[in-house]
Amino acid sequence: MRFDTRLVHVGQEPAQGTGDVSPPLHLTSTYAHGAQVQPAYFYARGENPTREALERALAALEEVRFATVFPSGQAAGATALATLAGAGRAIVSDDVYGGTHALLTSFGLDVRVVDLADPTAVAEVFADPWADDALVWVETPTNPTLKVADVAEVSRRAHARGCVVLVDNTLAGPVFQQPLRWGADVTLYSTTKSVAGHLDVLGGALVHDRADLHELFVTHRTTTGSVPSPFDCFLVHRGLKTLSLRTVRQAATAEKLAAALRESPHVGEVRYPGLPDHPGHTLATRQMSGFGPVLGFRYRGDVAALLRRSRYFTDAVSFGGVRSLAQCPAATTHRSVPTDLRERLGITDDLVRLSVGIEDPADLLEDLMGALDPA
Ligand SMILES: *Cc1c(COP(=O)(O)O)cnc(C)c1O
Questions:
Q1: Which pTM was predicted?
Q2: Catalytic annotation on 45?
Q3: Which of 71, 266, 304, 375 qualifies as a cystine partner to 228, CB 3.0-4.6 A?
């Protein structure tokens, strides 16, 4: 079964007895099976069929056995850190999601922040025995600077040090990039973004093929009660079916907008891995089958005024959804990143991040070009 068919068929087998072609919403907290006999369905913090249908669908996307879903991407990250960072050390991409910095700090880990898109920096950090058994947390492409890390190379060096490699694949999504294929151990998704895709639900997932990790993740989730509601699982699963249609369109439009922005006199640098002169373009072409819905650019003008002038790019955080969004990362999503790191990464007040939606590309282009020009 090919990818786009799996999106619609796995975890969506017509229900036994009734024949529902859409996975039913199981709203129950407990199950009448005789709790003494340890039935497969015992209590909803541990088991729920709506949740399991979504998990089967997500695992099938990377052709692996396991997916564990959570109420948010952050909840998935918290379980990953609680179970995988036993050595107390973590190596992390320098431009990770803002919330990831906060999460690592809250776990009190000894963290090395590394530019994992730089092969020299990668070689250096893994040359040090300090790296032994550390958790390696890769985000690629990063946002808003869209840096691209070589998952195969990082995984190879990390595994030689006994590390577990987690890739936050939220930005590219499973249509364009499958980190497990390149040697990573675990893929993390904020399914809030392109997987659900409709800007109406939060969710997270850990996807992988290791029975030992599955046991750890599920036990931690059940113990801490970090379970998504059946209705949230239903919404994420509903969104998932159109993931391919949506994201292929979004990436195609993003590519057009990136090219047009580059020609504009009101715009400085444009960051999009699909642009041939992007520093990570060659690697991205090998590692990804498309370049995603997010791009960054530097505006030579008043960013707040630009955001106000745009009709279709709503000034809001998040990305990957059906509706186009624009925001200034330095003032919003990346406010909590330490100032010196933010400046080193180039996340300055002139940087605008766009998340391209599924609207008509001509409307988006017209709107953006009009908004750039204050006259
Ligand atoms: C949004 C996001 C998260 C956190 O996910 P939530 O669902 O908001 O908790 C983690 N990583 C990345 C890359 C994200 O964009």
A1: 0.97
A2: yes
A3: 71
Domain ranges of the chain: 3-240, 243-372
Per-residue model confidence as pLDDT tens digits over 210-239: 999 999 999 999 999 999 999 999 999 999
C-alpha of residue 40 to centroid of ligand 1, in Å: 32
Q: Is the distance from CB of 327 to CB of 316 less than 8 angstroms?
A: yes
Please confirm, yes or no, whether 256 is among the known catalytic residues. Answer: no
Tell me if 247 sits within 8 A of 220, measured CB to CB. Answer: no
Q: Which atom of ligand 1 is nearest to the CA of 203?
A: 7
267 and 258 Cβ atoms separated by less than 8 Å: no
Q: Yes or no: say if 270 and 296 are a contact pair by the CB < 8 Å rule.
A: yes
**Active-site residue, from 51, 89, 94, 97:** 97
Dihedral (Cα; 121, 127, 129, 135), 10-degree rounding: 50
Counted residue by residue, the chain has a size of 375
For residue range 290-310, what is the model confidence (pLDDT) as tens digits?
999 999 999 999 999 999 999
The rounded distance, in Å, linking the Cα atoms of 258 and 103 is 32
The atom number, within ligand 1, closest to the CA of 191 reads: 7
Domains 3-240 and 243-372 agree in fold: no
Q: Whose CA is nearest to atom 1 of ligand 1?
A: 190
- CATH number, domain 243-372, options 2.60.40.1120, 3.90.1150.10, 3.30.70.20, 3.40.50.1360: 3.90.1150.10
193 is catalytic: yes
Please write the tens of the pLDDT for every residue from 338-371.
888 888 889 999 999 999 999 999 999 999 999 9
Q: Report the alpha-carbon distance of residue 273 to residue 202 in Å, rounded.
A: 27
Is the domain spanning 3-240 CATH 3.40.640.10? The answer is: yes
